[in-house]
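Z., the sequence and structure:
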Amino acid sequence: MKNKYITIFSTALIIILIDQISKFLIKTNLQLNESLPLIKNIFHWTYMHNFGAGFGVLQQQKWILIFISLVVIGVIFYYFDRIKDKEISLQILIGFILGGVIGNLIDRLSYGYVIDFLDFMIWPVFNFADSFACIGVIGLIIYLWKK
């Protein structure tokens, strides 16, 4: 197996584990809509169910969101062979996106919603899968822009 596959898949696996373990801990230790201040009025853990995508779009559109996730995963797999072995930063960014998409896809398939809990009070509540996917997409845009 090529090194790029190991880099991409191990990055994605680490992100999926971080995401799913954190969601499990939130789900088993907080009640739905309960908020635990870590830094009062700045950062809380707030356990929420998100039936849509980011910023409340596509509410109650589980199957459309599952389809979009599968398309993103398919596009990533389609482009695997075009990623060069020496493009380590690109491989990590792709791993971030893949891990983030799969992390939230697991929730949608398991529960019909995504578990969110990172609450900065001035931004919609989100999770680690969202964070890594966004970092991956922003990083990918910068990477391709510079290329």
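The longest helix spans residues 3-29. The beta strands are 35-39, 43-50, 114-119.

Let me know what you think.
H.
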